[in-house]
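## retry 2 of 3
previous attempt timed out at serialization; input unchanged, resubmitting
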Amino acid sequence: MMRLQFLNLSVNYLDGTIPPLPGNCSLEYFSLRTNNLKGVVPSNIVQCKNLRVINLNHNFLLGSISPELGFLQQLTILSLSANNLNGTIPATLGNLTNLYILDLYQNHFSGVIPASLGQLQFLQWIQVNDNLLSGKIPHSLFNISTMIRFDLSINHLEGSLPHSMCDAFQQVEKLVLYENQLRGQIPTSISNCSMLDTIDFSLNGFTGTIPSSIGTLQKLYFLQIGKNQLEAKTPREWNFVDALINCTFLQLLDLGYNQLQGIIPRSLANLSSLETLRLSGNLISGPIPSEFEKLMNLIQIEIKQTLLEGNIPVEIGYLQNLQNLDISNNKLFGKIPSNFGNLTRMSRLLLSDNAFEGRIPPSLSNMQFLEVMDISNNKFIGEIPKDIMNIHSLSYVLNLSHNYLNGSIPSEIGKLKNVAQIYLSYNNLSGQIPSSVDGCQLLQILHLEGNLLQGPIPSSLSNLKGLQELDLSSNNISGQVPLFLSEIGLTHLNISFNNFQGELPKEGVFKNATAIDVRGNPELCGEVPEIHLPKCISSSPASEHHSRSIKIILYCIAGGILCISLTICLFISYLWKRKSERIPHAIMTMISKYERVSYNDIFRATSGFSLENLIGSGTFGVVYKAVMSFRTVQTVAVKVLNLNQHGAFKSFLSECEALRNARHRNLIKILSVCSSIDHHGNDFKALVFEFMPNGSLETWLHPNSYMNQLARCLSLIQRVNIAINIAMALEYLHDHKPMPIIHCDLKPSNVLLDENMTAHVGDFGLARFLVQPDTTPARSITNTHGIKGSIGYIPPEYGMGGQASPQGDVYSYGILLLEMFTALSPTDERFRDGLSLPKYVEMAFPDQFMDILDINLSSTDHAIEDFLDCLLSVIRCGLLCCRELAKERIGMNDVIKELNLARAKLVRYQIFEHDLSK
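## retry succeeded, writing output
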């Protein structure tokens, strides 16, 4: 050990404390990063005089930095970030004259930054961000000419920046000082930092004007100086915008929440590489410049909470890359340009709190990536366009409240399967609440108050199991308050000022008087004292006798009809039994249940099984796209079994048996079954399913693995929604009566996505029933032994001969969940020598999870820090599903609860800023 020079035990499962190092050791490289180590850094590490690298980041280390570390003269890298270290930064670190990386971020260091660090003349990288440091930034640090990355953000630093800041700081590329308490002006000498590509001074107290000298920084691509007190009162003080034309790589310009005044300079449109523009929270006025049409690379425009006025320029509709438009809380008016339908990449459209008028353009339905739509507090008129309900991507908010909309709520509202919050309140909407609203499967908040709605609360609302907040106040809704409102998990309910009658339920949300409002319903009664309703009067004996008489008559009539129906059914059943004695029970049931199709029907519908219609293949068959007539002509998917493949017929029987016994909105829907012979007299078996236009989850997670696939990616909210859909399907299967169903082959290629991006679990060819001892032989076919599933998704116990169980599906689901958020297949070549996808994720969880996140997620517009809670909850859930021991895995009920909570966090963060502005 004394001769050991290189020790790297990074990214393992090491826990406990770091043992003392041997005296006079020869170590030069010492790395234990990304483990679960606790305790303190060994004090005798200072005896290893040859140490060049100490890397202990991303652990749970405690204590302080020993001043004696300053005696390790050979040290070039000191990385202790992402631990729980505290105390001060020792001044003796200034003796490490060979140091070029000092990495201490995400700890609890306090006190001042030692001026002695200015002696480190080879220092290239200093990261002490996200600590509790205070005092002024030592001027000596700005004399280090080798500095490249300078990050002191998220501390309590104060004072001003020296006027000569960049005289020696000429190699610095990233200057990050956000979220401190810095004051004074931005030095004009910043132009001497000619290599700068990133400036982030946001969330400080900088004053004065923005120096035009910033425009000489030709490599600048990120300029974030929002949330300060910077000024621009005259056109001359806006000259810095003209100077920025020289910054030909500038992609992000954030000037929001300062004290900028006047109109937006038209020269801003000359920043041709700009992707993000933020001007919110200033005193700017006048119109939105029509010259913005030149900014063809713009992805985000945020100019909310200003004094903008006038119409939205039609030229905005030409910005084909625009994904986020937030111009809420201004004085804008006029109509939404009709060409807004051309903004097909739009994700967030926020136009609220203005004076827009006219009708809502149906062309907005072309925004098929839209996740948030808020046009509330305007003057829109007319009916809600039915086309809006075809925006299947709406996942967070649809807010049309506080307008002058009339007509009924479109029944097509049920197509918004993924939306979390709907606000249609304070309009002039009439008619009844459509029963189709239960199609909004992930709805959490529904506000319909302040309209002219009438009729009862539809019973279909009972299907909205995730509904938390329901406001129907100030309408003309009548009837009894349904009992199911006490059963679906509501936390807030407002039904005040309607025409409800009868007894109020006692359980659930009704037990909490502060969570409900039932005022203004004079015919309501109840037994909960805190609600202050009159007690209910029981029915008289005479009326009860009359009611019983009517019920007896109705039962007699119904019984007679039932007897006649049974006689007819038994006769038909007898005829079918004689005709189909040799057909297996499961197939026979399917044939009788669905509209029959022949081999010729399928042959014609697939154009003779042409390659053009081939859309997939698997172990036991191939899948074709076809057009067939089932009540209406529709596109379908036909799975043709390869009966020459061993196990194909058993797979066919398993799928028939499972699908005839299961029906759920997140399971693939079967339309028909064909058991016939082909043109050559061979047995032919096929299943006809509804067609899923968005293909399998596999093609979305791994598009590069499929020929002729367009590059595409799933957003964070889409992934969470799909995860919930799959979990709900498995919960249904595992709780299925009379026998639970085990899927046994859950993987991305067996999850299909419809036009709404709602997930449907399919391919039940390996499905098992948890059979009872007296199960008939015909059903024992679904309980065969052997390894069940696909490599990478098979739980460990199956490989050791274990029986199929719900916990096995839970393991496969956990693998799938991790794959969805890392885009790493469990069969990736990196997973060998005992390393698996769950272990790989667990090693990075939680501190380094962002490093292994799917790159398509980490590069989205969302502020990933804001969504970290959601991501960590989802991944924690995935890891709990992937436990080695089946008994330690959580059940699907708990999975759904956890994912719904994670989704709620995601929705809350997504609309947090917007809610604040309101």
